[in-house]
Write a structure and sequence with these properties.
With 241 residues, the protein is mainly alpha-helical. It has eleven helices and no strands. α5 runs antiparallel to α10 and α6 packs across α7. It is globular.
Length: 241
């Protein structure tokens, strides 16, 4: 690999990391600041304020990747049967590994992942927002940020899938625990074990994208999984679990 190609690949990694920082750090602070009082006082209106943020993010990402997205959408429509089959195949593989590893870790730590617990709380408090985000908007946003933005930085499918799955899993796991201090992070070290189930699922999302070179394949895989997860959470909540 020559120096020019190395710099270009580095730029794509920086782009992906920048999008993650903006998405989870700077932009939420700017967007939600004017709505702080409303979010505390009106839970119904809060659903739509939260949704508004992610709609804006999705629009910005579509504009950023608009040329390749148009091409990939046309390709997906042309090869939809094959790509849907690939999406389901990779989802099943990832789901099996995720469930088995998750069951083992839950038994060891005697508790569920903090991110999963947080999702249940959000669904209960803001159901319109949570279901809309997790089943419709969220998968597309996360596929664009966590996978599409990094794709051109890797020639190896395994390297791509490993790198992006580690980033994806790390942020989801850390999102469910207090990392404000080193002490609080260390006290929640067991939660880091959940990197395995989150990472294994994300690994297969990445393979679905890489093998078809179409972000709509992995988005479909991601959407299927999130919808399945939300349905399971709603069933558990209804049963008092």
């Amino acid at each position: 690999m020559n120096e020019k190609n190395s710099i270009k690949k580095g730029n794509y990694i920086l782009l992906g990391l920048l999008l993650i920082v903006l998405y989870q750090g700077l932009l939420p602070e700017l967007y939600f600041l004017p709505f702080m009082d409303i979010l505390k006082e009106n839970s119904l209106l809060a659903n739509f304020i939260y949704i508004g943020y992610y709609v804006i993010i999705l629009i910005l990402l579509i504009l950023l990747f608009r040329k390749s997205l148009k091409k990939e959408w046309n390709d997906f429509k042309k090869n939809k049967k094959e790509y849907i089959k690939i999406a389901f195949s990779y989802w099943i593989k990832g789901l099996i590994i995720m469930i088995l590893s998750n069951l083992l870790i839950v038994t060891l730590v005697n508790g569920i992942a903090g991110n999963e617990e947080q999702n249940r709380e959000i669904i209960q408090a803001y159901p319109i927002y949570a279901i809309t985000l997790m089943c419709i908007i969220g998968p597309f946003i996360e596929e664009l940020i966590f996978r599409k933005s990094f794709k051109k930085a890797f020639k190896s499918r395994i390297a791509f899938a490993t790198f992006t799955s580690l980033i994806f899993a790390s942020l989801h796991v850390l999102n469910g625990i207090d990392i404000s201090t080193l002490e609080s992070l260390l006290s929640n070290w067991q939660q880091l074990l959940f990197l395995l189930p989150y990472g294994s699922l994300a690994f297969f999302f990445a393979l679905a994208y890489y093998d078809t070179d179409n972000i709509f394949t992995s988005t479909l895989t991601h959407t299927i999984h999130n919808t399945f997860s939300v349905i399971m959470i709603l069933i558990l909540m209804a049963l008092g679990g």
